Amino acid sequence: MIVMDRPRPPETFARWPGRITRPEHALEPAPDPAPDPRAQLADLTRQGWTVWFGRHTRQYWAAHTGRMRLVCADTPEELLHTILRDAEPG
How far apart are CA 32 and CA 37, in angstroms? Predict the structure, then answer.
């Protein structure tokens, strides 16, 4: 059997008037997308944190009853950074 490297033919889909081709494989892997702060906040809730946004203070808050901690920040990224920084040993 002979296998030849040739580009894939474009595929036509009924919904789109133009032809759509599949992207070729990249030589380098794509960089990881920036983490979604909301997904990371959801991870905190699985670790026992209660997270909320204060309508009057316009700040993000997190509390952990077992650790007796209350943290606030202006952005979700800052809140995550504060919690993770304080959680590191040492």
Answer: 14
- Looking only at the bridges linking them, the beta strands covering 59-64 and 19-20 are unpaired
CB 50 within 8 A of CB 90: no
Name the amino acid, one letter, at 55: R
Query: How far is 39 from 26, CA to CA, in rounded Å?
Result: 28
Burial class (CB in 10 A: 0-12, 13-18, 19+), 80: buried
**How confident is the model at residue 45, as a pLDDT?**
85
Q: Name the pTM for this structure.
A: 0.54
Strand duo 50-54 + 11-12: pairing: unpaired
